[in-house]
Amino acid sequence: MKFVAPNLHRASRLAVASTEIMNESLIKSQIVSNMDLSVALCGEEGITLNGQHFAPDAFRGYFKFQLSHAFPQGATVYQTALHPAVIAKSYRSLLNQNINYEHQIASYHSDKDVRDRVIGAVVAVDFPSQPAGGWKLDLNATPPGITCVGVLFKQTQGMAKIMGEHSSSKRKYTVSMEVFYPLEEAGFAIELNGKDPKFDFSPPDFIKAGYEYVPYEEAPDELAATFSSKKSRIVLRYQGRKVYLMMGGLSNPVNYAGAGVVAFGAEPTAKILRMAASANRLLSELADKLSTTFRN
Q1: Are 21 and 257 in contact (CB under 8 A)?
Q2: Which end of the chain lies in a sparser environment, N or C, as judged by fewer CB atoms within 10 Å?
Q3: What is the pLDDT of residues 96-142, one digit of tens each?
Q4: pLDDT tens, 39-76?
Q5: Environment class of residue 13 by beta-carbon count within 10 Å: exposed (0-12), middle (13-18) or buried (19+)?
Q6: What is residue 291's predicted lDDT score, i.e. its pLDDT?
Q7: pTM of the full structure
Q8: CA atoms of 180 and 193, how far apart (whole Å)
Q9: What is the SS3 assignment for 188?
C-alpha cells in the first residue's frame, strides 16, 4: 500500500511506499525569540470551541483556525482536494497532532538537514454535521472545513516574534494541513467543460457541479499520469481538461498528521481566525523570573 502526504508547504515533495517525505526547497531563515513572554495579543479572554474554553497564560497562547475545506472550492494549489464525506470521517484524527513551523519536521525531509520545529498542538476540532441527504458537492454553498483550536508554546524559539508579526499584520501567517492517505484509495475529479462524462463512476452531484469522477485504480494510464507522486501534485491535463486528485476518493478516511503555520499556504481557503496569546502581567513577570533561572 502506497501512502502519500501531498499537502505540505509550497515546496514539498511526497513520500511513496512509506511515510517518508522529501522536500525540494526549504526556507532556511530562522526566527529567533527574545523570550518576551509578556507579549500581549488580542486580549486575555481566550477562545471557545464546542463548549471548551482555552485561556492564554504566560506560557501558552491559543489560536483558532480553519483548514481542509471541501472540494471544489477548497482545492489546493497542487490540484489536490478532499470530498466532504472524507473530511467528515477523518477530521478527528487531527486532534492532538503537532503544529509546526513551515512543515519543518525532520521525517518529512529525509534529503535535508532539517530539525523539528514543533511549536504547539491541536487541542480541539470541529466539523459541520452531515446535511440531510448526505454530503454532496455544492458550488453555491460555503464549503465545509475543519475548525480547530491550537495551543502555541510561547517559550518555544521564535514564537514571540511569530505571534507579534501576525497580530501586528507585519507578516500574516496561515495554516496548512499534513495528510497521509493510500494512493489506491484516491480518485480523480475531471472538469467536464460542458461535455458529457467519458466514464461511468460519477455520482449525480459531481456531474451537476461540472466534474466527473474516476477511482485511481480504474484510471487509464493517461489519466493516472496526470498525478506525479514525486512532486505530490497534478502536473498534466487529461485530454485538455483540468484534473484534481481526490485524496481518500469519495468516502475513504485519510489521516491528518498535523498542521503547519506557514507564510504561504497551499490551501487558499485556509486561514487563522483569531489569536489569543496575552498573559497578565503577574504571570509574565513570574515567567520571566523562571526562564532566567532555568537559563542560569
Answers
A1: no
A2: C
A3: 999 999 998 888 877 788 888 899 999 999 999 999 999 999 998 89
A4: 333 445 789 999 999 999 888 989 999 999 999 999 99
A5: buried
A6: 45
A7: 0.80
A8: 30
A9: strand
Residue type, 40: A
Q: What is the CA radius of gyration of the chain?
A: 21
Residue 254: CA count within 13 A, CB half-sphere: 36
Asked if 35 contacts 205 with a C-beta cutoff of 8 angstroms, the reply is no
Placement of cell 501576525 in the chain: 166
Residue 129's pLDDT is what?
96
DSSP one-letter string for 236-292? S-BTTB-EEEETTTTT---EEEEEEEESS-S-TT-EEEEEE----HHHHHHHHHHHH
Q: Which of 20, 2, 71 is nearest to 245 (CA)?
A: 71
Distance between terminal CA atoms of the chain?
A: 51
What is the reported pLDDT for 277? 72
Q: Can you tell me the distance from the alpha carbon of 241 to that of 224, in angstroms, rounded to the nearest whole number?
A: 14
* 68 to 8, 73, 75, 106, 125: CA distances (angstroms): 12, 10, 9, 23, 12
